[in-house]
Amino acid sequence: MGLLLLKRLLLQSRKSKLIQDASRVGNDEEEYDYVVVGGGTSGCVLAARLSEDPSVKVLLIEAGGSGQALLFTRIPVAFSLLFHTEHVWQFYTEPQAGANGRKKFWPRGKMLGGCSSINAQMAQFGAPGDFDRWAEVIGDSAWKWESFQNYFKKFERYTPHPDYPDVDLSLKGKDGPMRIGYFSDVSQASKDFIKACNKVGIPYSADFNTSKGTLGVNKIMTYIDETRTRASSESAYFTKDVLSRSNLKVVINATVTKILTEKVGDEIKAIGVEFAKSKDGPRYRVKSKRDVIISAGAVHSPQILLLSGIGPAAELNKHHIPIVHDLPGVGDNLIDHPVVDVYFRNKNHTAKFVKPQGPLDAIKLVGSVLQYYVTKRGAMTTNFGESAAFLRSDDPKLFSENDFPSKLNDTTSAPGSPDLEIFTTPFAYKEHGDFLFPMDTFAIHAVLLRPKSKGTLRLNSTDPWDSPSMDPNYLAEPEDVQKLVRGLRLIFKIAQQEPLASHLIHTDTNSLLDHLLHLKSDEELEDVVRERVETLYHPTSTCRMAPLSEGGVVDSHLRVYGVKGLRVCDASVFSEIVSGHTAGAALATAEHLADIIKRENARV
Q1: What DSSP line would sit under 180-205, residue for residue?
Q2: CA-to-CA distance for 569 and 79, rounded, in angstroms?
Q3: Would the pTM of this model clear 0.90, i.e. be above it?
Q4: How far apart, in whole angstroms, are the C-alpha atoms of residue 259 and residue 282?
């Protein structure tokens, strides 16, 4: 009881440092050096790093509340229980022609920490070649892996684990705010998946996040600390000391409605933002002396630009929005990682009771929660995405020319970069966790890491509270489907390998399960891919860092073309989607921008 009271007091103290009364900052008299719009994965980093300089004033505005104050963000396994709550944006895509005309659910974090507060905590950063490609696209070597890798180390605090002694500690960050390690629970089937992958020709990788590259298989590192608690950008960067800084203010539950600009001669300058607590509530305004930095994510960042009159002229005219600056690339290049799930019957008892389907499950859940709070062990500590393999769809050891004669275009970022990820979860699910299977299961998932299909983000209306129109254009390119079919074929092969095969009941022909799926033709599997495809929650590149002539929105310093004092910093600026999980690159991008701005200030 005393421990619970202490936790409650600490959270209440934290909450008191977050500003809920918008009128305390929303007046035309108060001016900030930097206004950060969005307290998600990147926004918390920027606000914390920029406010390290006591001579500058920083304001962060977040549409949601504190993620860390929510129990289900802190318990590693519980994140999906937030998907249909007020703490998550309830987005749906446009009907996807390549996915049988279905709209796809796209949950996005509406809280401090953003999606780092509700993701599967998988700490894989992408491939070195991804960032070399960014540098090539934008023409700035600072984004090359050789240089940019230092920003992963800057946010990382890797804690060694005795079960994983082959991690080279000289390559890991030791002093960063984000705790990373091997502290999540992992099922025996996921451990044996690694050995099964080795048998089919996928090598073991001691660490996916080094210059040696990403290819290989292992248990995934996680953003989970030694106490088996999620590390989000909020918990890592918005510590008590940071929130106590007199030059940093954090406003929560406030939605930015537009960027304020002024035109002097031929120059357009961002001078602040307008925001409100509710759709019908009063509008507040704050001024910025140096930069407005939009860090609202790949969905909201382009939406805010468009609502502010910055974007393609045709789109702005369509909604009768006065054109501040015609910037054609805003909202283009929307790309996401599509995933297809495969379901197997598991001989072992699983932790499917985390979403109880009856009294016995409820009893098990209570016991597991007690175990978590007393020992910090057990089912509550799984991050859910337990083991992963990163590979190439053109690897002849895995996809021989005899069995796979079709030559597919290489969409990878480099010869040593993957275009497929195969990962495991300790039990199967559908509909983002809304449906759990009645029997014990094990799932293996195929992810296309470098899809050719790209889509767009556009406005549905001029109302900032309306969802924008999101069209990732899933599977528009036939080769995307063919590569996912290869991923399914590999899953079937891995599932038949020992020691994993001994965990699975391959004789179970229940129609809910996939033990007969390997008998289907490639054409039939293409239908399965289109029927099952879902998001891996990784939309990027809608405010792309690229030359203006190539549809870019920001330059190498993340400055919006044509608007002085305006930057974007989040996954929307990725020149190309990374070959893995996006949170790490979003954190590193924010660390890099913070240093860019500090260097600029030092020259003033």
Answers
A1: EBS-S---HHHHHHHHHHHHHTPPB-
A2: 25
A3: yes
A4: 16
Which one is catalytic: 445, 503, 538, 592? 538
- Which residues lie across from 55 on neighbouring strands? none
Q: Which residues contact 170 (CB under 8 A, 6 or more apart)?
A: none
Are 557 and 596 in contact, with CB atoms under 8 Å apart? yes
Tokens, residue 313: 């002229």
Report how far residue 89's alpha carbon sits from residue 86's, in angstroms, rounded to the nearest whole number: 7
- Going 304 to 310 to 313 to 318, the CA torsion angle's sign is positive
Whether residue 301 contacts residue 294, with contact meaning beta carbons closer than 8 Å, is answered with yes
> How many angstroms separate the CA atoms of 551 and 547, rounded?
7
**What is the reported pLDDT for 219?**
97
Cross-strand partners of 430: 435
Positive or negative: CA dihedral 124, 128, 133, 138? positive
Q: How far apart are CA 193 and CA 186, in angstroms?
A: 11
Spatial distance between the Cα atoms of 235 and 273, rounded to a whole number of angstroms = 26
Name residue 59's beta-bridge partners. Answer: 35, 249
Q: What is the dihedral of CA 505, 510, 511, 513, to 10 degrees?
A: -20
| Tens digit of each residue's pLDDT (9 = 90 or more) over 286-327 | 999 999 999 999 999 999 999 999 999 999 999 999 999 999
- Burial class for 320, CB neighbours closer than 10 Å (0-12, 13-18, 19+): exposed
CB-based burial, 88-127: b 16+ in 10 Å, e otherwise? bbebebbebebbeebebbbbbbbbbbbbbbbbbbbbbbbb
Distance CA 343, CA 320 (A): 48
Q: Are strands 310-311 and 325-326 parallel, antiparallel or unpaired?
A: parallel
Q: Are 308 and 462 in contact (CB under 8 A)?
A: no
Pick from 419, 452, 551: which is nearest to 137 by CA? 551
- 315 phi and psi angles, rounded to 5 deg: -65, -40
Q: What stretch of H or E contains 256?
A: strand 255-264
CA nearest neighbour of 593 among 581, 566, 604, 579:
566
∠ CA 238-589-77 to the nearest 5 degrees? 55
Bridge partners (DSSP) listed for residue 446: 340, 422
Q: Round to whole Å and give the CA distance between 289 and 238.
A: 23
Q: Which tokens sit at 207?
A: 């660490």
pLDDT-derived band at 355, boundaries 50, 70, 90 = confident
CA distance readout (Å), 16 to 6, 65, 69, 243, 505: 15, 12, 12, 10, 53
- The DSSP 8-state label assigned to residue 282 in this structure reads P
Instruction: Say if strands 267-276 and 255-264 run parallel, antiparallel, or are unpaired.
Output: antiparallel
Reply yes or no on whether 538 is catalytic.
Answer: yes
Distance CA 551, CA 595 (A): 26
Q: Distance (Å, rounded) from C-alpha 266 to C-alpha 438? A: 65
pLDDT tens digits for range 57-98: 999 999 999 999 999 999 999 999 999 999 999 999 999 999
C-alpha to C-alpha distance for 540 and 245, rounded to whole angstroms: 32
Strands 88-92 and 58-61: unpaired
Distance CA 492, CA 483 (A): 15
Summarize pLDDT for 495-508 with one digit per residue, the tens: 999 999 999 999 99
Q: How confident is the model at residue 1 (pLDDT cuts 50, 70, 90)?
A: very low
